[in-house]
Amino acid sequence: LLLLLLLLLPPVPLHCRQYSMSERTSIPDEKTLERLRSDYGQAKPRVAPLVALRPEEPHSEPGCVTKAHRYFCGSVKATSYTMLALLSFAALFWIPMIWYVIIPAVLDMLIGATSINIHNATMSAPTETSMRVSAVVEINNAGPFGCDVDAFNATVHGPPEEGAPSGRTIGWMVVPPFTLKGNGPGVINPSTVMHVTDAAAFNRMAKRMLNGDAVPWRMTGESTVWSMGIPFPLSIDKETTFPPIQLTNYATSNLEMSHGNTTTNQLVIDADVSFYSASPMRLEGFGLLKAELYYDVSGNNPDLSPAERLKLAGPPLRAGHVKMGECHMYDYTVVQGMNTIKTRIYLDANYATGQSLGRWASEFDQTIVSVGPTNISPFIDGIWEGANDMPGSSITLYTATFVTADTLVKGYNPKTGEPCKVWVRAPRLPPPACLRARPGCVRSIQPHRRSQDGGIDSCDRGSTVMGMNPFKREWFIKDIEYETYLEQEYEYSGTFLTKVIPGQENVEVPFTGGTTVGDLFNIPAVSFSCGRSNVLGRTFSKPGMWAGYPNHSPGVGLSYPPDDPNTTDVDENLQARLADDVIPVPPARVAADGTKIPTSYSLTMPVHPIPGTSVDRSGDGPCIWGLKNLNPFDCCMTTIFTAAACKAAESGKKQITVRSSGSAVMIVDGVELNISTSIRMPVTYTKDVLQFDAIPPASYGVLGHVVDAGFGCDDLRFTGVSAR
Fold it and tell me: Collapsing DSSP states into helix, strand and coil, what is residue 84?
């Protein structure tokens, strides 16, 4: 009111007399003086001389100004009221102006000039709607004075996105009080709980952070700043950037079979998952973290380069990705640098898992996509979708193959476990003239009714396969079927010779009515020609595969117990062993220093032709005299391995490299999984393979001692691709 009154009153001239420079001042005349004296009772007149005064300077009373308001030149009381009015005006106008306009503007300017840098941060203990956040933050105070900032509720906004150019509100937190030094940097260590109100927006932001993006957060709120003991209101709208949390170099190692679960039809494997984090952002207190695993069979083709495999089998998820299980990571923690977490992997017994385990056992590197978490909270679940590199096993399921004349030529009887004996007694042979003409009538010749069949059903010929168990527990394999190819192609021709051993020409052949060996086996050489091929054959497991040495011997290796003499003449243990079509894989041993020592195993598996791959140009019948009892395969199938061994021997090599691709059924605690492998392995041969003897004495008795039938390296002529 006083302020309005002062503004409404009109200016009033001051009563102070002002003198001009041209005016003169003089003493009153004598009559005037007498009158004045008489008025005041004075008797004697006093004559004062007339004196001219000098011109005086203009004069003003103290506090008076020209044409100023009367309140400045009045009494002390008036002046006091004037000053009071001015102070009231300042109190009512300028102080609020300074307090509510100028100071906030200055504070906003200083806050705008203040920089915030997050040196590191920790996110921990997530719940359904919140998690704890702590950080080491450097704030560079641009103001000249230190200050204390009261705790305040801060609203957190995500980065700008479509439909929300200023960012969506993702949650809120209570920022604890902190103190800053003036005109310089200060470090604070706030710790608070972040409450998430928009799980989807937070999830999108977190995905960007895990992909390596520096994501801006914006924080708004109202607080009070104390400086020099005076409180000032503070409006905060500040953007800062949290460090990205990009996790790279994911790898799975130290796989160890734990058990099988028939209820869930899963294999349970323990492993170590490692990854690298370059970020100062730390994650802890997440406890058990679950993630889903996906596998792309075609994208993990072993023939692809690592870059092609990552492009086709890595993220994002596509139609070719099949869920193969999930992994549980215990005490999930992420720190800057290399991280290794103990993990339990639950693999579904499906096609994708079988392909993956088989390729792992074949030493092939693979890419698996992990998606998670799946069990933490709505605002965190699914933020990760990344590639996990799984290096191939250093121990292959099958390590080598061993071929001898016993396995390749002689063979083993799967019903007795003994080497094949084609004839116990002499066969009913055709006339010598018929034997000389191949094929012809010899194809219809049947063995003696008391002879043992040396054909494909009762005599297994092939190779001894050796392998190792990469796990520290026993498991089993069955239904093995592999197609084996030589790494090199061979093209050749040869001669199959039948000749009587010198000095044995006149020996009479039993049960032939006096026919001598010389007359019976005066057979001309049989020539054969094999086109370009690298096909070795199809290997498979079957009952009787344990007939091969040493596994058919009692008490040896993985064999059966010795026969009980108190039972019948039949060896029940042997018969059970020969009827078994399951291969036990013994557990690896662990040395005193913790080193895993793989345990080897072996079995003899027959090799048969792969249908449609014959390259025999000389006919499609059995190679040895056309008799299936001697050898049921054509000449190229019969001679291909000997030809490859002869070629290797020319350069002094003791091994031939092959690749076997196929499948087998893996059995763990009753859970069956069909695994597919493709294994490159060496095949070792013995010298007796270089000289193929079709009728060795051990299998053919007396006949084998008087006749040689077969071929050697000198009887082969390499042509075409093999001539080089």
Answer: helix
* DSSP label of 442: G
Spatial CA neighbour of 523 closest among 435, 452, 454: 435
SS in 3 state form for 506-553?
CCECCCCCCCEHHHHCCCCCEEEEEEEEEEEEEEECCCCHHHCCCCCC
Report whether 134 contacts 153 (CB < 8 A).
Answer: no
Q: How are beta strands 115-124 and 281-284 bridged, if at all?
A: parallel
- Tell me what pLDDT residue 240 has: 85
The pLDDT score that the predictor gives to residue 86 is 74
User: For the segment 145-202, what is each residue's pLDDT rounded down to a tens digit?
Assistant: 788 889 999 999 999 888 888 889 999 999 999 888 877 788 889 999 999 999 999 9
Q: Would you say 131 and 282 are in contact if contact means Cβ atoms under 8 Å apart? A: no
Other beta carbons less than 10 A from residue 216's beta carbon: 15
User: Is the CA virtual torsion 302, 308, 314, 317 positive or negative?
Assistant: negative
Measure CA 457 to chain center.
48
Backbone phi and psi for residue 651, each to the nearest 5 degrees, phi listed first: -105, 10
Q: Is residue 142 within 8 Å of residue 113, measured between CB atoms?
A: yes
CA proximity to 241, closest of 198, 280, 273:
280
Q: What backbone torsions phi and psi does residue 240 show, to the nearest 5 degrees?
A: -140, 165
Instruction: Assess contact for 477 and 667: CB atoms under 8 A.
Output: yes
Taking CA atoms, 11 is separated from 65, 67, 74, 80, 84, in Å, by 13, 8, 13, 18, 19
Q: Which pLDDT tens digit goes with each residue over 115-132? A: 788 888 999 999 999 999
For 250-283, how does the pLDDT look when each residue is reduced to its tens digit (9 = 90+)? 888 888 999 999 999 999 999 999 999 988 889 9
Q: Which of 684, 688, 689, 686 is nearest to 401 (CA)?
A: 684
pTM for this prediction: 0.73
Q: Residue 201 and residue 556: Cα distance in Å, rounded?
A: 66
Closest-CA residue to 624 (of 439, 491, 431, 492): 439
Rg of the chain on CA atoms, in Å: 53
Q: Which of 473, 402, 522 is nearest to 666 (CA)?
A: 473
Pairwise CA distance, residues 99 & 104, whole Å: 7
Q: Which residues contact 102 (CB under 8 A, 6 or more apart)?
A: none
Separation of alpha carbons 2 and 208, rounded Å: 63
Evaluate whether 142 touches 183 at the Cβ level (below 8 Å). yes
Beta strands in 228-286 (DSSP E): 230-242, 247-261, 266-277, 281-284
Residue 238: other Cβ atoms inside 10 A = 16
Give how far the C-alpha of residue 449 lies from the chain's centroid of Cα atoms, to the nearest Å. 64
Task: Give every CB contact of residue 595 below 8 A, 6+ residues apart in sequence.
Answer: none
| Residue 334 pLDDT | 94
Nearest Cα neighbor of 550 from 664, 406, 410 is 406
Q: Which residues of 37-46 are buried (b: 16+ CB within 10 A; e: fewer)?
A: eeeeeeeeee
The residue type found at 345 is: I
The amino acid at 335: V
List of the chain residues with pLDDT < 50: 1-25, 40, 42-43, 51, 63, 66-67, 423-452
